[in-house]
Amino acid sequence: MSKKLRLGMIGGGQGAFIGAVHRIALQMDGEYELVCGAFSSNPEKSKASGELLGLKPERVYTSYHELFERELQLPEDQRVQVISIVTPNHVHFEPAKLALENGFHVVLDKPMTFTLQEALELRKVAEASGKRFCLTHTYTGYPMVKEARQVVASGKLGKIRKVYVEYPQGWLSRFEEGSDNKQASWRTDPNQSGIAGAMGDIGTHAFNLAEYVSGLSVTKLCADINIVVEGRQLDDDGAVLLKFDNGASGVLIATQVAAGEENNVKIRVYGEHGGVEWQQSDENTMLLKWLDKPVEVWRTGTGYVSSYAQHNSRTPAGHPEGYLEAFANLYRNFALCIQADLAGKEPQPEWLDYPGMEEGVRGMAFIEQVIASGKSDQKWTNFSI
pLDDT tens across 80-102, in order? Predict the structure, then answer.
């Protein structure tokens, strides 16, 4: 058996929601060992976080600069191999760039960077480094999302005509950034989040899901972007019309002011002969709809699904596999590819099915062009990188 990959984390200290999610996901399949970290820009908080996680004090660092400097001094068989970056958006680019330049593989939370220009530069760095890069677009990790992609790719639905994707949330229906809500504070702050609020936070997930399942690429978009809650600095609601490279059209909705909604991201893709539908509130189910036949209900963990869905399932049919398992699938596939590289073997196609650099660049282009379209009187914008 291969040894566990040694992983270090940047960000994700005490009280950080997404850091805890990453740690659960990376440990679920036993592919990684968390060996070091710089968990906060506050040195005391970083040290305290490392202590709670049971790390050796000498491998808990006060900054990511110190992490790279000190880890590179260790023997190769002891130093960290993979860096997981779970910081706010404005602290994505530099640590990811330094990690790749110093010979470490990178797992990075989305959106990839603060600006499209940073994303383009990071792509060049990654290509020169020869190291692997994973972007945590969680929802592509669900078995039945992968099944939907395979159904579309098989051609059973015929030429794709329509794509509908939505991500409704309600948690920002009030001015939460005015209270002691850390998640709301940084996600609605343009100095930390970037030029987009809802469209950067959850719109990028919806965009990624639309392209992933349909197998198509957006070529044009037309956006209506809104700030609904008074006093907010960034968008909290929006809708986008999409045009795809095969001529299909689509609609994307992302809102954080749909009071009462949680996180029920949903996608529907329709072709000439039928369509597929999946939603997170019923994550084990994919609906296959036909023009002239009854609806089919496909389920996770069954023998009739593709190798991609089977590979990303852990439990027998009927046992829910949710958000944490989908997140873990990204980490596991990434680890299996790195282990194959170390062994001089070719990774299996199912292992290579994780979001990476291209998805990150396209996500940043989506953010910039959606916001530009939302502000412009010339509504349709060519999607270009």
Answer: 999 999 999 999 999 999 999 99
